[in-house]
Write a structure and sequence with these properties.
The chain is 61% helix and 0% strand. It is mostly helical. The longest helix has 32 residues, at 20-51. It binds fe (ii) ion.
């Protein structure tokens, strides 16, 4: 059974880049949904093995992959984020950024645009009644 990790910092620790409300949504609603649905799917898989009824195995494995990876990706995010520290790229990285992007400002502009426009999945497997919302 998967258990939610503790958030390693206060809910407002990522502000101003990530608001308290946004982190709360991702931790208490989305991450919890992934963990709960992973556990639900694992129970359904156990039942399928016990009853030897694998008629819905494709759906169950798809759900386990979707919800399990959602849980793991949120844990990676939570554990690799932290309060903002005043940092800048070291010399080698800065030189590569300037070589690739023209300037640090152009790199930031492209990175910010890509972040804003990245596609996110709101798709939820519909089989077995698993839902995130
Ligand atoms: Fe999220």
């Amino acid at each position: 059974m998967l258990k939610m990790i503790e958030l390693p910092y206060p809910m407002q620790a990522l502000e101003p880049y990530y608001t308290k409300e946004t982190l709360n949504l991702h931790y208490h609603i989305l991450y919890k949904g992934y963990v709960d649905n992973t556990n639900k799917t694992q129970k359904e898989l156990q039942k399928a093995r016990e009853t030897k009824d694998f008629s819905n195995i494709k759906c169950l494995e798809k759900n386990l992959s979707f919800f399990g990876s959602g849980a793991i990706l949120h844990e990676l995010f939570f554990e690799n984020m932290g309060p903002a520290l005043p940092t800048s790229p070291n010399q080698a990285l800065m030189e590569q950024i300037i070589k690739d992007f023209g300037s640090f400002e152009q790199f930031k502009a492209q990175f910010e645009s890509a972040s804003i426009n990245v596609e996110a999945s709101r798709m939820v497997p519909s089989c077995m009644g698993a839902k995130m919302e």
